[in-house]
Amino acid sequence: MNFDPRAIGAQIRMRMPLLTPLEARVVDTITGRRDFNDATPLKDIAEDAGVSEAMVVKIAKKLGFNGFRDFRSALVNYNSLDTANLHQEISPDDTTADLIQKVFRTAMQALEETMSILDTEAFERAADILHRARNRDFYGLGGSAQIARDVAHKFLRIGLRATVHDDAHMMLMSAAMLGPDDAVMVFSHSGTTAAVLDALELARRNGARCIAVTNYATAPVAEIADVVLCSTAQGSPLLGENAAARIAQLSILDALFVAVAQRDLGAAETNLDRTRRAVESKHRR
To answer: How is residue 209 annotated by DSSP?
Structure first.
């Protein structure tokens, strides 16, 4: 397995939904060991987790590794990186300074790891789809809808209109009216949101080009979309995954906005100036 060492943690987390609850607990046992190193025997891991050695090997392969030794080596390399140590759990004893540092470090880890797994070819395809589209419809619920609104706002600044839908019925109505010249971008952290999946499937059947922004490359939304852009974030009991993943997804979309603008930089700069001047009168002096 030839992953960027910074991406190992992300690759493990992205494949966790493929595991059974028992298998996931085994992974948690392994990643939670502070004494885990290149010499840690398979037998010890199996005994600690209360499973057979064969199951540990099977889990390693489900996570994308060649076997336990490959998994062990990759995880040890990852744990030695500064990136792996950026994320820290919040404690009741933390000072205000501790809390600020931990929240910022969690976001920094999400950014570092997301950048390491970002598929540049998929990114280029997404930029082309959005640039060429006749209509651009964005779907998302809750926090994901806020990310959709942020990027729609950016696109409008350069003269590219996008419509955000955060209601299940409106998503379906939108999808029913789309065709091969249109683009849909869906935002779903889990990649399993039923309303988003239903609308995405309908848009795809009608020929629209579909882009998914999600935290899990193996999620159902990734199986439907033409292009998948993945963020990654390590969860914590208080912040959850969504908080850090939101920072990573916003950064992906910021880069995508710049890439789309670059495809017609003259028009983008002209429209940026027009929209900037349009709102200047609302600024208090």
So the answer is: E
Q: ∠ CA 151-152-155 to the nearest 5 degrees? A: 85
The listed CATH number (2.120.10.30, 3.30.830.10, 3.40.50.10490, 3.40.190.10) that belongs to domain 116-280: 3.40.50.10490
Task: Give the 3-state secondary structure of residue 21.
Answer: helix
Report helix, strand or coil for 211: strand
d(CA 212, CA 187): 6
Alpha-helix residue ranges (DSSP H) falling in the chain:
8-15, 21-31, 42-49, 53-62, 68-79, 96-117, 120-132, 143-157, 168-176, 194-205, 220-224, 242-262, 265-280
Q: pLDDT by residue (tens digit) across 106-127?
A: 888 888 889 988 999 999 999 9
Share of the chain above pLDDT 70, in %: 91
DSSP assignment, residue 31? H
For the segment(s) 5-85, the CATH number from 1.10.10.10, 3.30.420.130, 1.10.3720.10, 3.30.200.20 is 1.10.10.10
In the Cβ-directed half-sphere of 142, how many Cα atoms lie within 13 Å? 10
Model confidence pLDDT, tens digit, residues 6-63: 778 778 887 888 889 899 899 988 888 888 888 899 998 899 888 999 999 999 999 8
Q: Where are the domains of the chain?
A: 5-85, 116-280
As a whole number, mean pLDDT of residues 86-105 equals 77
What pTM value is reported for the model?
A: 0.77
* Residue carrying structure tokens 């970002």: 118
